[in-house]
Design brief:
alpha/beta, Rossmann fold, 2 domains, 6-stranded parallel β-sheet, 45% helix, globular
C-alpha cells in the first residue's frame, strides 16, 4: 500500500471473533463450580481486559479468595476446556472480519495481540482459512504482563517490523481494539487507536481516534487517513 498506513495489529476477542460472551460463560461455569458467582456486569466492568490468569487472580483479589499458582493454573485449564467445547458449536467470527482481514493482509503486514490462549486463536483463524495471513500472533503468556501493559502490542509491533524487513513507524501503524484496557495497551506502544463498539459503547473506548461498529464498517482508506493525520 503506497499511502500512510504501514501495519495493522488486531485484538482477537471482540474484534475478529465474537467470543467475549463465550469467555464470560466459560469463566462463569468454572467459578460456579467453586461457589463463586460472576455477573455479566462485573465481567464487562472489571475483568474483560485481562488474560485468563489475570481474570482468576483479579477475582481472587477482589473477593478475598485464597488461590495459589497451582489453583489458578487448574482453573485456567478447566476454563480452556469449557471454552473449547463452546467454540465448536458454530461460527464465531464477526460479519465482515474475513473480508477485511484478507484486504488488509494484501496491503500491509498484519498481526494479532491478544490475551486469549494461542491454541484458541490458531484454531479459529486456521479454521476460517486466514491463519496464514498474519505475520505474528501474540497470545496469553507471550509477554511478562498482559494488557493493559503495552507489552503485547510492543512485541507484536517488533515482530511486524522483523517480518517487513524494515523499521515501521508506530504512528503509521494501527491497533484495533474493543476495550479500554486494550486501547491503553496499544497507546503505551505508541500505535494509532481504532475502537470497535462490539463490547462497549463509543464513550467507553477512551483514547480511540476512530470508532466504528466493527470490521465490516471499517475501510483501509479510513485507516490511511488516520495515519496520515
Amino acid at each position: 500500500m503506497s499511502g500512510a498506513l504501514q501495519a495493522i495489529i488486531f485484538d482477537f476477542d471482540g474484534v475478529i471473533a465474537n467470543s467475549e460472551p463465550l469467555h464470560m460463560m466459560a469463566f462463569q461455569h468454572v467459578l460456579h463450580e467453586e461457589g463463586v458467582e460472576l455477573t455479566p456486569a462485573d465481567y464487562y466492568a472489571r475483568y474483560l481486559g485481562y488474560d485468563d490468569d489475570g481474570v482468576f487472580n483479579a477475582i481472587a483479589r477482589d473477593r478475598g479468595l485464597q488461590m495459589n499458582e497451582a489453583d489458578v493454573a487448574s482453573l485456567v485449564a478447566r476454563k480452556g476446556d469449557r471454552m473449547e467445547e463452546m467454540l465448536h458449536t458454530g461460527a464465531v467470527l464477526f460479519p465482515g472480519a474475513i473480508e477485511f482481514i484478507r484486504e488488509a493482509a494484501a496491503a500491509v503486514p498484519i498481526g494479532i495481540a491478544s490475551g486469549a490462549q494461542r491454541h484458541e486463536i490458531l484454531d479459529i483463524i486456521s479454521g476460517a482459512g486466514i491463519g496464514n495471513l498474519f505475520s505474528t500472533v501474540v497470545a496469553s503468556g507471550d509477554t511478562p504482563e498482559s494488557k493493559p501493559s503495552p507489552g503485547p502490542y510492543q512485541l507484536a509491533f517488533e515482530r511486524l517490523c522483523a517480518a517487513a524487513g524494515t523499521r515501521l513507524d508506530p504512528r503509521r501503524s494501527v491497533a484495533i481494539e474493543d476495550s479500554r484496557w486494550g486501547l491503553e495497551s496499544a497507546q503505551g506502544a505508541g500505535l494509532r487507536l481504532v475502537g470497535v463498539t462490539t463490547s462497549y459503547p463509543a464513550h467507553e473506548l477512551v483514547g480511540a481516534e476512530l470508532v466504528v461498529s466493527g470490521l465490516k464498517g471499517l475501510t483501509l482508506a479510513a485507516l490511511d487517513r488516520l495515519c496520515g493525520a
